[in-house]
Amino acid sequence: MNKHCLATLAVIALLAVLLPGGAMAAQPVNVLLDGESMNFDVPPVFEQGRVLVPMRPIFEAFGKDVTWDAASKTVTTRTRLHATAGKTNTIKLTVGQKVAYLDGRPVSLDIPARIVKGRTLIPVRFVSEALGAEVIWQAATQRVVIKDKQRYYDQMLSYLEQGNLVEARRTAVSAPRKSTLPAAPLAWIPPDLMRTTYYFPEGEAGRFYIRQGDHFEFVRTLNMTFTTVWEGNLGDATGETPADTLSKYLARYRSRGFAEEQGERPAITKPLVFFEFHPGTNLIRYGRINPDGQEENVGSVNYDKEATKFNILEIPGEKLANVQPPAEVSAMLASEIPQVELNETEIEEMEREWEKSNFYSYGEIADLNQEFIDVALRMAYLTANYGRPTSSDPKEDLELKKKNEYYLSRFSEAVKNSMGWNDFLALEPRQDPVFNVLQATSTENHITATIVANFFSGFGFVPAILEVEMKKQGDTWLFTRLENVRAYKTLKEMQAAEPATYDLLVKVYNYRYGTGKWLQ
What we know:
By secondary structure, the protein is α+β, with helices and mostly antiparallel strands. It has helices spanning 55-61, 124-131, 150-161, 165-174, 245-249, 327-332, 344-357, 362-386, 394-408, 413-416, 419-425, 491-497, 499-515; strands at residues 30-33, 36-37, 45-47, 50-54, 64-69, 74-79, 90-94, 99-102, 105-108, 114-116, 119-123, 134-138, 143-147, 178-179, 196-201, 207-212, 215-222, 225-234, 258-263, 272-278, 283-289, 295-302, 433-443, 446-455, 463-473, 476-487. The strands form 5 sheets. Strands 14, 15, 16, 17, 18, 19, 20, 21 and 22 form a 9-stranded mixed β-sheet that branches. Strands 5-6-7-8-9 form a 5-stranded antiparallel β-sheet, with helices on one face. The chain has a 4-stranded mixed β-sheet with strand order 2-1-13-12, with no helix packed on it. The protein is flat.
């Protein structure tokens, strides 16, 4: 279990759903908790227009101990470790009664808990509203999306979209975290008891390093959740290797190296900013670290123990970076596309139609999309809206410049002078667009394709459609036409305007996810 998570185990995310007219669902309800499907031995049920969900599996997933009094048919849940300020730590309810108790305070229920096949089910709106969870009901797929840890990622993105890097970082370091590491990390120690330092890549909030004593860990966003993916302790001997970029930045620890590591140590390619808390002086010291490990101390302030989030400060002159979301987020962005299961006949028909119209196989176009089409379109769009990618390392900056120039040269002058090009670059900027071939016709040296773009906005699918033509030049491709660009604020808006394109989008994405033949 993650160190930081111990202070937030009482947060519980559940859902209450009002069905129109109290109708029964035509298909089973699927419950997703922070992007992962929950398994119940008794499925959720509908009663009086409410969804009731088995309580024990969800409570236990969030660190609650559950006790059952058979005589009174009363369930009591308590936070597994310790009470947490501002959070509900004890929940008590009795089967058949419309009053529950949160930390001893009575709260009315719309519908009481009930027993189904030996399991206690509760109306999930009660717990959701009582504990402030973020919940989404996806009626088309009968899916309950519960955001516990993921909601902190939502908040961080919201701050980044507002250009508020300080609040984004405060949210990131205060958020509960998961861990991918095989062994349990060391017990988390609050920052007012041990010197604690947070290191962020310049301009970023979605990934950071933490040092507490001799212990380091790296946290990044994974499946839209802050997740510890590496940790290690300072060693007693030199651990420097050519790939040991962390030591290069932290020059004062370089001679000790790292020991007892778990996970893959992350590479660092840009300057860091740091926020270091000294419990002895009650000060937050903050500043920059360049790639050679040279620190620039910007200033210090008193640590505010009453603050709900760690005291992150503004670094003068720091600009918000054009941050790319993690690769796995690209797949998650399709969450609003209805999930349908294609039968074998539909799959065979899609593959047959593709083969009839294309010289290149579906997989070959998928590879071309990932290695060239998406990269080139993204590079052109981001460069026009944010400027080309840069690095403080002159050698790396030169490589980035060459890469940028190469991909921009893959658009013909006719394309760059076209109205379609201007429409493409004028699409409303988002943090990061993802481009995929929706359909194509191809010969050996020519491809005509419909491209669907998802303009990253929180976790919604914000679609744009464009038509492109490419011709092969030697071993690579040149965009020779880009036109008919149209953008929509939501999938629903796209469905109303282009029902055939929308239906194709649903089929293609479900084909990819169902068969695993084109996962970006």
